[in-house]
Amino acid sequence: MDSSNDNNKNGSATAVEHGRRGFLGKGAALGLAGVTLGLAACKEQGASEKAAAAKPHQAGGGSEIAPGQLDEYYAFISAGHAGEARILGIPSGRTLKRIPVFNVDCMVGWGITNESKAIIGTKPDGSLLYNTGDTHHVHGSYKDGTYDGRWLFVNDKIHSRLARIRMDTMECDKITQLPNVMGFHGIFTDKRDPVDPKINYTTRVFCGAEFHIPLPNDGHDLDDPSRWGALFSCVSAETMEVLWQCRVDGNMDLVATSYDGKLAASNQYNVENAADLNGMMSAERDACVFFHVERIERLVKEGKFTTIGASKVPVIDGRKAANPDPKTAVTCYVPVSKNPHGVNASPDGKYFVCSGKLSPTATVIELAKVLQWFDGGLKDARDAVVAEPEIGLGPLHTAFDGRGNAYTSLFLDSQCVKWNVDAAIAQFKGDKNAKVILEKMDVHYQPGHNYASMGETREADGKYLNSGNKFSKDRFLPVGPLHVETEQLIDISGDKMRLIADHTAYSEPHDGIIVKRDLVKTRQIYNMDDFPNAVKPENAGIERHGNKVHVRLMSQAPAYSMPVIKVRKGDEVTITLTNHDKVEDLTHGLALPTYNINFIVNPQETKSVTFKADHAGAFWMYCTHFCHALHLEMRSRFLVEA
């Protein structure tokens, strides 16, 4: 982490060894505040300390993909406050696609075309409801305990929205806003139906709310946070409608689901339901709250619910006071270390693991014991905890290799720790010889999320682990005050972890999944008939109704179907464009200078835009996406009469 000048006199970069271990060891003794100060001061580290520091693993072979060869996996990751999702190839780390979701993207026209505006949502004047988003977590749909390649789901923490991405086109097709929720952070899909054994695929998406707000948030109770609350939401994967919500004690962070479909859970901080930091830190422990999905849905079916404000979504009370009897309770609050971060399901379906964050521990919860508590057979919910190993400073998120080992990111230690779940359970039972910690690896620096290849499924293959690191100073060429972040790829297939590649990441990615390429089946060409407004020779041309003008346009390299389009100043103009090329990868674009119009149409696809022709003149409408040797000549004159 040292940033002193280690280049030679000629200015050529040499290998720099950063003495983080000594620095972090001192910083840990100062506590979280001291570490934060230390991060800013790490440039002061001396040469002698650098020389004494342990060397990190060296990047080596294994990540190079030869020209013409394909990656083994797709990585689907969130992009944070960029508002999009991203696709990387693994192990190359090559960026394959950026999927606009909650952001405006002037390349594809997301947030510009009528079709994308309808998905994002608009105000009465036709402008976007929101121009910003904050994606944190991406998760896929399942069948038989593994990914089925149908959908991806991603959240928007700022505006409490859930988006769905079709995996055949890698484009967002639906967005839903959750009612009476703020700070929608964690999501996870269910893996099968909790009641019907024939339904072994994803039908629901669970969404955890982080912030307490007045319910409803309509301007009342603003000065009495004791009356505020948070809701856990269930959304239909098929329709994207909110099916039900459950009010809880505490703030929710991330979400996990069981392989049998019976349980969903969220790790929690602020079980005190406080509105300030001091109040949030008063309890000895926080919790992982478990939701008994079948019981909640039974109450909804029986009409035993309330609603909040103008929302018609059924709300079930999952607070402790309303659920004193485990045999009828819809929630179970398992005490865990204070301020936990992350909850992850082991591939064998037996355990959920919560990380301590401010505690150097991970809490292993046995799901069979949680169900035992719901049946009244467990005296104390804390008895569902079967291990709580000490693993390092600042544990956040845990991935699995399918061989019984867990990999947890250590934010304060800037490490990934590999530990064995069975050994941790044995140690918890009193086995002093159990070897829990198998290995620790330095990462650069301050890791947040990590995720393993197929690690969120029954087919966890233990091949690759990605460490998403929040700080990267000195790791790459400097580009000003805003540094890129680091995605580090680690080979976990052997007995020892091996760092094989560093990849840069534009701020600020969070969680992701790594999916085998054969599970992803994309389409390369659209079906024109899937678009009701497709423009064909029989309906192409200009149609006027008063001051509303519809321009129906076709594109086929290297020309648009109309060389001249004439409208009048003040007209409301809709341009509908259909790409008639059938060649894979032959995309066209349409840009209209001074009118804020820019979008693309893929082969056989149709998109449209609507705008007011509010200034007169001649404007060259041109193709933005290289399509032909005469690409530069592909344009039409858009004439607006005064």
Automatic annotation (TrEMBL):
It is found in: Periplasm. It is an enzyme of class 1 (oxidoreductase). Its main location: periplasm. It catalyses: N2 + 2 Fe(III)-[cytochrome c] + H2O = nitrous oxide + 2 Fe(II)-[cytochrome c] + 2 H(+). Its cofactor is Cu cation; Ca(2+). Pathway: Nitrogen metabolism; nitrate reduction (denitrification); dinitrogen from nitrate: step 4/4. Keywords: Calcium, Copper, Metal-binding, Oxidoreductase, Periplasm, Signal. GO terms for molecular function: nitrous-oxide reductase activity. Its EC number is 1.7.2.4. Residues 546-642 form the Cytochrome oxidase subunit II copper A binding domain. InterPro entries: CcO_II-like_C (IPR002429), Cupredoxin (IPR008972), N2O_reductase_N (IPR011045), NO_Rdtase (IPR023644), Nos_propeller (IPR041114), NOS_propeller_2 (IPR041142), NosZ/Cyto_c_oxidase_sub2 (IPR051403), TAT_signal (IPR006311). Nitrous-oxide reductase is part of a bacterial respiratory system which is activated under anaerobic conditions in the presence of nitrate or nitrous oxide. In the C-terminal section; belongs to the cytochrome c oxidase subunit 2 family. Belongs to the NosZ family. Homodimer. This is Nitrous-oxide reductase. It comes from [Empedobacter] haloabium.
